[in-house]
Amino acid sequence: MGMNPFLEQSFLVIGPVIFLLLILATGIGYKVGKRQGKRASSAEKLEKTAGTIAGAMLALFGFILAISLSMADSHFEARRKLVLDEANAIGTGRLRALTIGGEHGTEIVRLLNDYARVRMDFFAAGEDSVRLKSVYQKTSDLQQRIWNHASAIGRNAPTPISAILLSSLNEMFDLASTRRWAFEVRVPSYVINLLLLFGLLAMGMMGYYFGICGVHHPILSALLFVAFTIAILLVIDLNKPRGGYIQPEQSPLNWLVEEGEAQKIPQ
Description:
The chain is mainly alpha-helical. The protein is built from 8 helices and no strands.
């Protein structure tokens, strides 16, 4: 399911809009509640009832916020873990190819060094579809060349070591596909839409309660609006695998590339 176009905008647009909508919902609720409070024959009972409902709405909003944040965080953690898993798989394949040596083993090592750089480009491409398409093509080409050399080793010397090499390379290729999939998985848009909806309803109900009570807390309300806006923006940011400000560290792949550049490959 595609993302809401509004959520794809810059935070400089999303943040102020959400903040203003929360203020607007509270203001509308406050005016309605104030008018209702003046007309009510039993203002005290109405105040207690409205307070209960407002508390329930805020609790429900907090629950949906917690679910949304948990889903977004679990996707982020999966992407971060896959960086380390893929770097370890490439490093393992490179060490096993070095152990086998020979023409094919040496060539696999060189290709794996190039492969590590391409896998770094997979992340660096961001949301550039043209660059991503190029990365996917390079990844596929390198995988095919690596597998051709590994298959030649398996045919010429079908030993347990060559079998282990083939297994590790297969795992490495699988991780590339898994990592690509992880960048496509997001919190369903309807969950975030519900989060925004319940946020507005909760603020409206809170404003209604303030109106019935005949009191208003502009400073405390503003702090609450800021806190809720930041929490919602955090969910939205974590839900942007390529365009968000919070991104998983690529250090394991960087280290792998640096080790490959410093490594002396037997001729």
